[in-house]
Amino acid sequence: MLLKHIQNKYKIISIVGMAKNSGKTVALNHLIQESLDEGIRLGIISTGRDGESLDLVTETEKPKIYVEEGVLIATTTELLPLSDATVEIIDITDYTTPLGEILIGRIKDSGYIQISGPQTVSEIREMANFMVSLGAELVVIDGAIDRKSSAAPSITDATILSTGAVLSRDINRVIEETLHIVNLFSLSPVDSKDRPLLERAFAKGEIGIVDEDLNFHPLGIKTALNCGHIIGEHLREDSKYILIPGSLVKSTMEGIMEAGSRYKRVALVVADGTKIFIEPKDWLRFTKYGLKVRVMNPIKLVAITLNPYAPQGYYFDPRELLEKMRYYIKDIPVVDLVLGSE
Amino acid sequence: MEFLDQLTKESIDFQYVLNRLNTKTPYGKIYKDKMRPYLRGEEEKLTEELKKVESLTNHAKDSKFMEKINHIFHRIKDIRTSINRAREGGTLLEVELFEIKNFLFLIRELKELLTSSQLPSWEDTRIEPIESLERLLDPESTGISTFYIYDAYSDELKKIREEKREVEGEIKRERRALRERIQGELGIKLNPDGSIIIPKDRVELIRKMEDHPHLNYLSESYINVKYSLKPTDNMNLLERKILILKDKEEKEETKIRQSLSKEIGKKSKDLYNNIASIGKLDFLLAKASFGVEIDGVRPHVVEEHLISIVEGRHIKVEESLKKVGLEYTPISIELKEGVSCITGANMGGKTVSLKLVGLLTTMAQHGLLVPAKKMVLGLNNFIKASIGDIQSTEKGLSTFGGEIKLIQEAIELSDKKGLILIDELASGTNPEEGYALSKAIVEYLLEKESITLLTTHYDNIGNMDGVVHLQVIGLSHMELEELKKQLEDISKGELEFINRLMDYRLRRVDKTKAVPKDALNIARIMGLNPEIIDIAEKNLEHKI
Questions:
Q1: For residues B339 and B407, is the Cβ–Cβ distance under 8 A?
Q2: Is residue A51 domain-shared with residue A140, that is, in the same domain?
């Protein structure tokens, strides 16, 4: 149900969850199973758990997955001895995690294995590419649960989003929040002709303004937090972009708007949709006032998976949730892996 | 006795040199960290080391070769802990066995590269692949450096794994058959994990499922019921069998790891020899590459205690001048035991010349090529410098106090054949006493077996008997009128101006030569109020 949206179109894909228990692991296992049935050579990378000590102590938190012969995995030197599967070690990388160095292995004999992987975007990309070079036809990146640290979508060819009842007891609220994320993930990229310059400016990690002639003016502030008015005051007639290399929050947007009306002519640029932390209501208000946001790295959302059950014990009628979600999201396939209906 | 104290090391910029010495392997770094100077009596050893470095410079210049060897060096990891554990009877983990196999493959690759590129080789840099261990960790002769506990290690392991695979296959087949049967019987489609959720309004179906011998009730909500596949008795039996087989497999794997570790332990000496060779080779190549970068030459080491530098360059100063577009003037100097002093213009590079002597001597004695046309060196047992602002606020010493403390330390060492460098001797106090003190210190050091080089503004120090007097040529080659004319074009800044007109070279002068008076001209260039300079010139004439 998931594979058909990906197969032969994308090589490296990520799965991200709207929240814990939104069904990400179900989606991952489903995709693994489908790939195995189809005989696709698979690579699996699980991103680090943002270094939270809780996860280090309770090792049960690590996803344990069943892998078959031939699958490529990234795990760590300390997790390897805990696995059931026989693993051929291909390479031990220089990247270290609290659970040892990250290694790349190929399953020789199937079984359960604990996986944990790289922490940064560039490490994830490097390992995914390495797996492709080793013959993987599809590399699945199991993104972090917390969206803040999940930059994976911006470096993968495509992304699957898992959402579900866990978000709220109110079905409309679940739909609302999911729509918001889909909206943020679908933000359009900057003009390709402006991209090289913006990329260089982004690499500096500085907040700044780009004018019509593509000159970059850094503002000398390290974080956009509470600095919206400074940004707003620096806008000129010929300003074209506002570059925000970090996160974009409500107070920054408000500050920019309070400083005058020039913001209507410019576009805010963030790395990708996962960098925006603004509530749906506020977001819609800002959009109405004419604030435009563009991204450096667009995210290709290929499917949305639903989990109608919440671990707190409540649930929605799966068919109702599915139908409602499909009513609002028409251009991206929505599937309920639990219910199993197409 | 310490060869180089921390203060001296800082003041002559030796740390800068160390920072530019790039080893690539953890073992090369150990040699770099343990690097020590060659002292008197070790002339032959130093020459041997320097010749090794020199003989590697051709390869260091060959960027293709360096790229290849660095590609190998970068993959070399520190495996000493694992080797030690194996030697002491410990059982290595799979990850450790992989690292050792990787190392074995890398030394083979290195050996091939060294042979094909004809890199000079010595007893202590010899790389010897360990074939028996290679075979041990690559039992299926795959020729690739990946690793797992191969079936080939024991028939028992092979048997267990085959059986495990068979049983697993059997479970899968039975499961698939069961699944298809149920799907056919009930007209439903199970999820990949064997579960299914049925809406409660399908009463008839739910009744059938409840009665079905191979479906389990899992959970329900007000809307749905969840069922999952119930394994047959045979499947349960097979699952148990798998558990037993897994346990057996793990025990067998441990046994194999134990025996592999034992074999590795036996070869620990061979592994360590290669480790030492890699470390030395990496370190030598780092020295040679650095020598190439700074356009260095091999210093000639002699028995006699002297220092002779032809067109030497202080590389850090040279680099910072280059950054602002200025050129560095190489300095030549000859020193022997006793005292030599440098006098001359302010901003004439006296201090840099002092640092240059200290730095090049230190580099040479550490087995490095030196940035010069030529250098002849008799080894020193210590180098002591008093350069720059040495106020020690921690110890509550003023500039003068700090200087005196350092000079006393140098004096205590002065009969031990070393190099003493003193900048602006006793300048931090009143001229009368300062001069008296300077003269006394110089007289004392004249008789000692160390090479002393100092800079001073006191005219008469250079005129003392036995003191070699070196002078910065400075601005003295210019007439005042010409200087004033030149001053009209100072557009590129004062420093550029001074750098263009100043002759930083040193010349040996006899005792009758007066110390040049360039201070007022320098003040003029730097833009001091002309009125003040006029008054100062008048003061000079009237000897006030």
A1: no
A2: yes
Band of pLDDT at residue B500, cut at 50, 70 and 90: confident
Q: Which domain holds residue A281?
A: 195-295
Residue A65 shares a structural domain with residue A159 = yes
- Residues A150, A121, single domain; the answer is yes
Query: In A, which residues are within 8 Å of B193 by CB distance?
Result: 29, 33
Cross-chain residue pair B147–A77, CB shorter than 8 Å: no
Neighbours of A231 (CB within 10 A): 26
Please indicate if any CB of chain B lies within 8 Å of the CB of A34.
Answer: yes
Count of all residues that appear for chain B in the document: 544
Considering only CB atoms, A340 lies closest to which of B148, B196, B246, namely B196
**Helix, strand or coil for residue B213?**
coil
Is a pLDDT exceeding 60 seen at residue B106?
yes
Q: Are residues A266 and A167 in the same domain?
A: no
Q: Which residues of A touch B73 (CB under 8 A)?
A: none
Chain A nearest CA to B126, separation (Å): 27
Write down all domains in chain B, each with its CATH number in brackets. Answer: 14-130+267-291 (1.10.1420.10), 155-245 (no CATH), 297-514 (3.40.50.300)
The angle that helices B155-186 and B233-266 make with each other, rounded to 10 degrees, is 150
pLDDT(B402) > 90: no
Q: List chain B residues with CB under 8 Å of A81.
A: 93-95
DSSP alpha helices (H): ranges in A59-211? 121-133, 171-185, 195-203
- pLDDT digits 0-9 by tens, A182-224: 999 999 999 888 888 888 888 888 888 998 888 888 888 777 7
Residues of B in contact with A100 (CB under 8 A): 95
For an interface test with B, give the residue of A68, A109, A321 to mutate (most B CBs within 10 A): A109
**Span A258-315, pLDDT tens digits:** 888 888 889 999 988 888 889 999 999 998 888 899 999 888 999 999 988 887 778 8
pLDDT tens digit sequence for A126-139: 999 999 999 999 99
Residues of B in Cβ contact (< 8 Å) with A79: none
Q: Would you say residue A60 has pLDDT above 70?
A: no
Task: Provide the number of structural domains found in chain A.
Answer: 2
Cβ within 8 Å, pair A108-B146: no
Question: B113, B68 in Cβ contact below 8 A?
Answer: yes
Q: What is the pLDDT of residues B531-543, one digit of tens each?
A: 888 888 888 777 6
Interface test with A, best of B190, B191, B198, B254 (most A CBs within 10 A): B191
pLDDT value at residue B74: 94
Flag if A88 and B146 touch (Cβ within 8 Å). yes
Residue A209 lies in a domain: yes
Cβ contact B148–A87 (<8 Å): yes
Confirm whether A285 is domain-assigned.
yes
C-beta atoms of A338 and B192 within 8 A = no
Whether A342 is covered by a domain: the verdict is no
Contacts of A290 (CB under 8 A, 6+ apart): A263, A264
* Cα(A221)–Cα(A227) distance, integer angstroms: 8
The whole-number average pLDDT for the span A117-128 is: 84
On whether residue A341 sits in a domain, the answer given is no
CATH classification of the domain holding A77:
3.40.50
If asked whether residues A107 and A233 sit together in one domain, one would say no
- pTM, two decimal places: 0.80
Task: For residue range B43-65, list pLDDT tens digits in order.
Answer: 999 999 999 999 999 999 999 99
CB B175, CB B127: distance < 8 Å: no
Q: Is A309 found in the same domain as A281?
A: no
Distance in Å, alpha carbon of A52 to nearest chain B alpha carbon? 25
Chain-chain contact of B161 with A110 (C-beta, under 8 angstroms): no
Distance from the Cα of B135 to chain A's closest Cα (Å) equals 17
Distance CA(B268)–CA(B87), nearest Å, equals 7
Q: pLDDT over 70 for what percent of chain B?
A: 93
- How far is Cα B204 from Cα B208, in angstroms, rounded to an integer? 6
DSSP string, B310-343: EEE--HHHHHHHHHTT-PPPPEEEEEESEEEEEE
The rounded mean pLDDT for chain A is: 84
Q: What is the pLDDT of residues B21-37, one digit of tens each?
A: 999 999 999 999 999 99
Q: Provide the shortest C-alpha distance from residue B338 to chain A (in Å).
A: 54
- Residue B197 to residue A109, Cβ atoms within 8 A: no
